[in-house]
Specification:
With 345 residues, the protein is an alpha/beta fold. The protein is built from eight helices and 17 strands. The protein has a nine-stranded mixed sheet.
């Protein structure tokens, strides 16, 4: 299939720039794969769509403030780093602005912090390798001076919003390591989770640290040649037991987010059994993939021609997915990270 098969038209006005005042106030489009139909709803209706014995699986990764603003030494020009992956202690791969001027040997300083960085290498994909020097714990400095790594379609200019630090994070985030939020989980509140459990639904957790691969553009026309970069994930013995027990009893496994679905499918055997493990998820899910574990998917609306839209299309079918997206556009749903969601059952 060609990447152009996953395109749709989205007015810029529908890209959500701010979260709603209440997390669970978002709209939810319920898409039924069996009947090829959909209906408009609200996220607070999620518990009523789940049944006794179902398992709702969430990704408990925690976003760290991976965007750092600095300046070139000694010239003073502004520099922005988005930390992507730690390759060794205090050495990171990073996306940079401006990219062309940051050649090996460039020194970067950071106001208000005992921190210096040196560019040590340039990679083919535009990523720079940056080595940090400090007398403090680097994670502590990053937590203090870093900013939430909001995607580029959310415009903040040079301001650092304290609201984003709290809202660009799920309420159950515990495991530090993501550079992007598992956005389907942003809608949850304690009351919604309690309502889910009251219906006899078990809530299980996996960890997948969302990396650059999740939002990296698809740069090849033939989608079979695109590979989503590997991301670290883990599944506990407790979660594996809960999921396997529910599946053997004929109950559904509902993944909250595409990252959760990727973790589950990466952790499964050919027969759909989940094993406790930690490793890297290198699976790229495109139409034609047969899901082994995931029976339902809660997800936000994704960018045109993105690997996330391809994953959703693999789960629900390309035609149904794009038809539902076009309905969401016509109905003025809010799109992307701070936007509304859809439940595929």
């Amino acid at each position: 299939m060609d990447i152009s098969d996953f395109d749709y038209q989205l007015p810029e006005s529908l890209i959500a720039q701010e979260p709603l005042a209440e997390r669970d106030a978002s709209r939810m489009l319920i898409v039924d794969r069996a009947t090829q139909t959909w209906r408009d709803s609200h996220f607070k209706e999620l518990p009523s769509q789940l049944a006794n014995g179902d398992v709702l699986v969430v990704n408990n990764t925690r976003v760290f403030p991976a965007r750092l603003r600095g300046h070139r030494v000694p010239f003073g020009g502004a520099v922005e780093l988005l930390l992507v992956r730690e390759v060794e202690r205090n050495t990171w791969e990073a996306l940079t602005r401006p990219a062309r001027r940051l050649k090996p040997g460039t020194e970067i300083g950071f106001a208000g912090a005992d921190l210096r960085a040196h560019v040590t290498a340039c990679q083919d994909n535009g990523v720079r390798v940056v080595k940090f020097e400090t007398n403090e714990n680097l994670d502590d400095i990053i937590d203090r001076i870093g900013e939430p790594p909001l995607p580029p379609y959310i415009y903040r200019g040079t301001r650092n919003s304290t609201d984003d630090r709290q809202r660009y994070q799920t309420i159950y985030a515990t495991e530090r390591g993501a550079i992007a939020a598992p956005t389907a989980g942003l809608h949850f509140t304690s009351s919604v989770l309690e309502a889910v459990k009251t219906r006899g639904v078990q809530v299980a957790e996996v960890t997948l640290h969302v990396g650059y691969g999740t939002f990296e553009p698809v740069r090849v026309p033939d989608i079979s040649k695109h590979q989503v970069a590997a991301e670290r994930f883990s599944v506990s013995e407790e979660t594996a037991s809960v999921i396997n027990g529910a599946r053997s009893a004929g109950h559904r496994i509902i993944a909250v987010g595409t990252t959760t679905a990727r973790a589950l499918e990466s952790a499964s055997s050919p027969t759909g059994e989940i094993a406790m493990q930690s490793g890297v998820a290198s699976l790229t899910i495109i139409p034609g993939y047969e899901f082994r574990v995931t029976d339902g998917l809660l997800t936000n609306f994704h960018l045109p021609k993105s690997s996330l839209l391809m994953l959703v299309s693999a789960f629900a079918g390309r035609q149904l997915t794009l038809a539902a997206y076009n309905h969401a556009v016509d109905s003025a749903y809010r799109f992307y990270s701070y936007g509304d969601c859809m439940l595929l059952v």
